[in-house]
Amino acid sequence: MVFSGQNPSKNSQVSHIPTGRFVSFMHSVQCNAFLYAACACLILFILSSCSQNMPEIKNVNTAVILEYHDMNSLPSYRLSIFVDSSSDVHRSSHIEILSKNTGYKWECDSPVKIAGRNSRQWAGYTNFAVPDGSEIPAGMYDIKYMNADGESTESYFYISYDAECLSMKASETIEAMNSKGCRTNIALFDKDGILLYYGEQTPEFRDEASFLRNYSTAASYKKVLLASSSSLVCILPLTEITRP
């Protein structure tokens, strides 16, 4: 005997189900249970797949880039932002950043995508510029990171740098950054401007003779100063290598 709803009372009607219909009914219950289980597994799989494809922000790598074209002019400057993500950066489609202090907002619809070692990957842009006559805002920023499906995630980061360097010539910036401690990297180029090497300047790799010993086709180089305690990166003018 099968009933549905509340327990039968004196006013309820109880119906008897013939054996054949009872077996059919139980088979239907078992089929429904199987379908429910299958649907649950499918939903879990879909949710799991979605979670793997959802955009994620592990960290935000920032740099205020000052670039000098000669030793006597003031630098051009721009903001570089890259999202360090555990989701697939090849599906990244849009990045927005907003300065909380000024309200300046930047958008990028074609992020640069970089795959590194140990499954590290980044998506970002190296040329977020400010209006003429304006400084790159320091302080807190909001960031929105979106994938090709229109799914997005948000986070925040901070920019810190010495804004006085924006009004300094190259020699003044070199002195200021060295006094506060900085690292120096070398970018080596061939005669066609193709990058041959980028890395730290060391005692064994610090002058033109050592550059040529290691890279015989090197034709020019730039020194890149990296502030140790801020987001500041200074790219010094291109220097032609004098061959012996």
What does this protein structure show overall?
- This protein is α+β, with helices and mostly antiparallel strands and 244 residues long.
- 22% of the residues lie in helices and 36% in strands.
- The chain has 3 helices and 13 strands.
- The strands form 2 sheets. Strands 1, 2, 5, 6, 9, 10, 11, 12 and 13 form a 9-stranded mixed β-sheet that branches. Strands 4-3-7-8 form a 4-stranded antiparallel β-sheet, with no helix packed on it.
- Strand 1 and strand 2 form a beta hairpin.
- The termini are far apart.
- Residues 1-31 and 41-51 have low confidence and may be disordered.
Please name the defining characteristics of this protein.
244 residues; alpha+beta; nine-stranded mixed beta sheet; four-stranded antiparallel beta sheet; 3 helices; globular; disordered N terminus
- Could you tell me the radius of gyration in angstroms? 31 Å
Helix content: 10-25%
Reading the helices and strands in chain order gives HEEEEEEEEHEEHEEE
Shape: globular
Mean pLDDT: 81
Number of helices: 3
Main beta-sheet strand count, sense and barrel state: 9 strands, mixed
Helix/strand class: alpha+beta
How much of the polypeptide forms β-strand, as a percent range?
Answer: 35-45%
Number of strands: 13
